[in-house]
Write a structure and sequence with these properties.
Low-confidence stretches: 1-5, 10-49, 200-218, 397-405
Largest sheet: 6 strands, mixed
Radius of gyration: 28 Å
Distance between the termini: 81 Å
CATH class of the largest domain: Alpha Beta
CATH superfamily of the largest domain: Ribonuclease H-like superfamily/Ribonuclease H
């Protein structure tokens, strides 16, 4: 046997469970599929996942090390590494890439069936080598983990980070195989593995791939359903008695036309004009009761999709509830979500607007709620193709805060 033909495949998963593409299909070889756009008719499954695939050869040379982009709506991506998946390949394309590399070669892995099932690749048992089957790694309750086997045989530590690194796992598994290759016969599986994506399976079948799922339509909310909200607040009190009070709320539509621009009556004397742009004469002439303004906002946004920057906070401060699927949070837009620096600390709206739109939020030297609302809509329009990405995760319903009234 030419040991140079040996290949190691490790598929590390960062999301929940296996990707249920298909359950019964005709066998197709070398099928590559595009990444699927999100479906309009459903919200997707939260147990789908992406990951990382790494392949090294017998000498430890890296043949493949790529991230896999989930096919489900991106609003369900839920890991701090998701920015790595933005330019990753689709699961179906990855299956095709892997199949091209492994064809005709022996695959080595650790609990390799999980990797093959994750990639939905059918492969003959005679061409598999599962390092976890070495008798020395058997314990009373099962099998040592990869990390434990590496510690025992190689006296080194792996998997010390929050997320496993597929390349580290692949290299470690090949090191274990090379160390114990004189006992290679122990690693040949004798029991077939479940291939739920195939209608028929065979222990001697050629490597096969599941076909492309049906492509759902690309769907974006109609422009007339979109409104952007900006809420100017002031902070009053000290310590535990410190509170945020809304004093102005502005709504604009998709075409940057004003839907609503109201001032909210509060028992205050300091308007913090340098931060709110509100002067006493304008406020005294236009401020209205909180409940009245709140009802106006509710009526204007009913059945609409609300766009904002910390949009949930804006609704909370107005004591409003709104269907989560009808919110769009710009702090989840691609420039922030896929930037490791911004993910740790979101930029201010002023910084974000300057970087993305090169636009000032000042009117005659003072902050403008109107300009802020327009900027929010322009930001959404710039990244509208990532609409599903901006749907915030569900939160507990907001409750009325009496100090707003």
């Amino acid at each position: 046997m030419n040991q140079k033909l040996l290949i190691l495949l490790i598929f590390t998963r960062f999301f929940g469970s296996l990707i249920p593409f298909v359950t019964s299909v005709d066998i197709i070889t070398h099928q590559a599929c595009p990444t699927l756009p999100p479906s309009c008719s459903s919200s997707g499954q939260q147990n789908q996942k992406g990951g990382q695939v790494a392949i090294v050869n017998f000498d430890g040379d890296v043949l493949l090390n790529q991230y896999v982009r989930p096919d489900e709506p991106r609003s369900y991506w839920r890991t701090s590494r998701e920015f790595l998946y933005l330019n990753g390949t689709s699961p179906a394309q990855m299956r095709s890439n892997v199949n091209e590399i492994i064809r005709g070669r022996i695959i080595v892995g650790f609990s390799i069936f999980h990797d093959l099932q994750g990639l939905q690749i059918d492969y003959p048992l005679s061409m598999l080598r599962d390092v976890s089957l070495f008798l020395k790694y058997k314990v009373q309750n099962g099998t040592l983990s990869l990390a434990a086997a590496v510690q025992m045989d190689l006296n080194r530590t792996i998997q010390t980070q929050k997320y496993h690194d597929a390349l580290e796992d692949a290299s470690a598994t090949m090191d274990l195989f090379r160390l114990n290759h004189n006992f290679e016969n122990e690693t040949i599986p004798t029991k077939d593995y479940a291939k739920y994506w195939l209608s028929k399976t065979s222990a001697t079948s050629e490597p096969t791939l599941a076909p492309c799922p049906t492509v759902p339509p690309v769907c974006l909310p109609p422009p007339e359903d979109l409104v952007a909200i900006n809420c100017m607040i002031i902070r009053v009190g000290k310590g535990r008695k410190k509170a945020a009070l809304p004093i102005q709320v502005t709504l604009v539509d998709y075409w940057h036309e004003t839907i609503l621009n109201e001032y909210i009556l509060q028992n205050i004397t300091d308007f913090q004009t340098n931060f709110t742009g509100i002067t006493q004469d304008v406020y005294d002439a236009n401020a209205r009761n909180f409940t009245y303004v709140q009802e106006l906002v509710i009526n204007k946004t009913e059945s609409k999709i609300i766009i904002g920057y910390s949009v949930s906070d804006a609704l909370k401060i107005l004591s409003m509830n709104h269907e989560n699927e009808k919110l769009r949070e710009l702090q989840r837009s691609p420039p922030i979500r896929f930037n490791p620096i911004y993910r740790e600390r979101n930029p201010s709206l002023e910084t974000f607007v300057t970087n993305e739109l090169n636009m000032s939020l000042l009117d005659k030297g003072l902050p403008s709620s109107m300009l802020r609302a327009i900027a929010l809509m322009r930001l959404y329009q710039k990244y509208r193709d990532a609409d599903d990405l901006m749907i915030p995760p569900p939160k507990n319903p907001t409750t009325t805060n009496n100090y707003f009234l």
